């Protein structure tokens, strides 16, 4: 069968990706560069947020077509004790808005308390932080988690096997799994990761079309702004100086492309919010990729991810022909 242009281009790109992964072997050094400073970054001034959840609705309206399409096929996993099913597909579970799920990529945390003798009642929109040197990308064994050149961190739903390495590696445990969907059903339905991981993709498709992410566009209080990281950090610093406030995300996990501003210290906020499964904390976070074990994991994952990712992409392509 003659090879078509699309397939030829794909093969070339895949082989290039594989050779790069094998030759490089490790993620790129995290030294600051002009490209990193120009990555897209969001600034969230939580003193403005009124907790109306318009952003949550906007995210659901715009991104609903990307949510898991579960069709009721849930293979029994082996061993059952090790590989847990995660099923959010029922009508009630899809409606959950009090935490992150595969069907809810953004939710609002509430923080109430007192600080320096003054009471506070704040709302904090939470979702993926889009880390600059994301451990979810560096440690995904299938190359399904990836970072766009503009800094957006995404998970490819046709390559992800749902093994949840990204969730384990993420300091905030952001990605959420839906079992019974994805490539594992065609490859190793009883042994693979058992689903696909989902999280905020920063409305990459809207950004590519020159539009704002939905949560930013619909917010009635202009809580969020988006721009090159260098500019966002400068704005954040001005706000902190003017308001005697606090920043989260400038240094967390080596720096993220999501920056929060607050009139109350983040360790105080962390004690005031509900945290747990699907409800990320606001603790100070060291750079995960500076940890020797994480680096070793990335060393192993990088070439394997390149090869497996290329094979899975080829399978997808041949299926679509
Ligand atoms: S960020 Fe904006 S839209 Fe979202 S809850 Fe706060 S005020 Fe409402
Ligand atoms: S917050 Fe977690 S899921 Fe999001 S980019 Fe960082 S490591 Fe990945
Ligand atoms: S950037 Fe897009 S995907 Fe992410 S929380 Fe906002 S609306 Fe949802």
Structural features, described:
- The chain is an alpha+beta fold.
- The chain has a single domain, classed as Alpha-Beta Plaits (2-Layer Sandwich), CATH 3.30.70.20.
- Helix content is 35%, strand content 15%.
- The chain contains 12 helices and 10 strands.
- The protein has helices at residues 5-24, 34-37, 54-63, 91-94, 135-139, 165-169, 184-187, 204-208, 214-218, 229-243, 266-272, 292-320, and strands at residues 40-45, 107-115, 118-126, 145-147, 153-155, 176-178, 196-198, 224-228, 246-248, 258-262.
- The strands form 4 sheets. It has a 4-stranded mixed beta sheet, covered by helices on one side. Strands 2-3 form a two-stranded antiparallel sheet. A two-stranded antiparallel ribbon has the order 4-5.
- Helix 1 (5-24) packs antiparallel against helix 12 (292-320).
- The longest helix is centred in the last third of the chain and has 29 residues, at 292-320.
- The chain is globular and about 55 Å long.
- The termini are close together.
- Residues 58-59, 62-63, 105-106, 127, 200-203, 213-215 line the site of one iron/sulfur cluster.
């Amino acid at each position: 069968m003659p090879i078509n242009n699309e397939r030829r281009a794909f093969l070339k790109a895949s082989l290039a990706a594989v050779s790069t992964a094998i030759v490089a072997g490790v993620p790129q050094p995290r030294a600051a560069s002009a490209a990193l400073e120009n990555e897209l970054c969001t600034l969230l001034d939580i003193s403005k947020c009124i907790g109306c959840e318009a952003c949550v609705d906007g995210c659901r309206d715009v991104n609903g077509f990307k949510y898991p399409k579960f069709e009721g096929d849930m293979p029994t996993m082996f061993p059952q004790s090790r590989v847990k099913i995660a099923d959010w597909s029922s009508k009630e579970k899809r409606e959950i808005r009090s935490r992150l799920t595969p069907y809810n990529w953004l939710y609002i945390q509430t923080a109430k308390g007192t600080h320096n003798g003054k009471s506070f009642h704040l709302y904090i929109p939470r979702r993926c932080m889009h880390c600059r040197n994301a451990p979810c990308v560096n440690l995904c064994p299938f190359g399904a988690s990836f970072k766009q050149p503009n800094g957006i961190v995404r998970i490819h739903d046709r390559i992800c096997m749902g093994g949840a390495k990204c969730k384990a590696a993420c300091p905030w445990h952001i990605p959420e799994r839906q079992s019974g969907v994805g490539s594992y059903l065609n490859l190793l339905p009883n042994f693979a990761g058992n689903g696909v991981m989902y999280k905020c993709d920063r409305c990459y498709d809207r950004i590519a079309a020159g539009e704002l992410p939905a949560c930013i566009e619909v917010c009635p209080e202009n809580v969020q702004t988006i721009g090159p990281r260098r500019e966002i950090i400068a704005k954040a610093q001005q706000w902190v100086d003017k308001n005697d406030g606090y920043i989260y995300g400038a240094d967390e996990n080596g720096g993220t492309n999501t920056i929060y501003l607050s009139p109350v210290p983040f360790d105080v906020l962390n004690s005031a919010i509900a945290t747990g499964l699907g409800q990320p904390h606001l603790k100070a976070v060291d750079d995960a990729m500076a940890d020797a074990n994480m680096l070793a994991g990335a060393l192993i994952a990088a070439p394997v991810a390149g090869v497996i990712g290329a094979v899975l992409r080829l399978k997808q392509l041949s299926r679509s022909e």
